[in-house]
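Bench notes, afternoon.
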Amino acid sequence: MEKHKQNTINRFGLLGKDIDYSFSRGYFTEKFKREKTLDCQYENFDLDTIEKVVSLLQDTTIQGLNVTIPYKQAILPYLDRLEGDAAAVGAVNTVAFDADRNPVGHNTDVYGFETALKEVTDILPQKALILGTGGASKAVAYVLKKNDVAIQFVSRSAGTDRLSYEQLDPQTVADHQLIVNCSPLGTYPNVYEKPNIPYHMIGDKHILFDLIYNPEKTLFLQRGSQQGARIQNGHSMLIHQAEKSWSIWNSNQ
């Protein structure tokens, strides 16, 4: 980052809860070493409550933040404004600071997911199931709607805009040939968990996309692969969204 003052350490980091497992710190640490960006460091800011973000946002040594579970929506009241896709999505995974040090929310999950999905297929199915209703699912839904894919949310409990897993019948799975897991089910160390869907109705026309990246192949993806589906984990999405975050932070310097 050429515009930073020499001999000043510019801090970036991930805001979340119970995030020792996180991809971001390792990715950016290696990126800084590889690119010889010696004036930057990336840290984990593991907060047990979102209220503690206030002190981070006031710390002038911090130049940018990524945001993960469970704070992608909870952080919104602490931001000065939202830009780009963040306003439409209603969730933030990147915080930058403007010239007056006002915190500005962005969403690079949109870019990350859309780019990673296009690596799997050039032609999207007409219908998709989105498993989970957290902050990341909002970015996924936004991308799919933008690409004229009809979506159906699935969650632990039914609602006006979602089915419960118990209500998910085999024909619905057969009809929705893109299934995106936005839930934490299957994340390390709970690798034997998986979304409760009728896997026997998945076939070779299906695409299963899991936002989880650890383990590399969740039980959700394993079962889909056994049925002949194309599969993709969240690693590529994370790289694309991380690089987009880096671009935003640099453009604000």
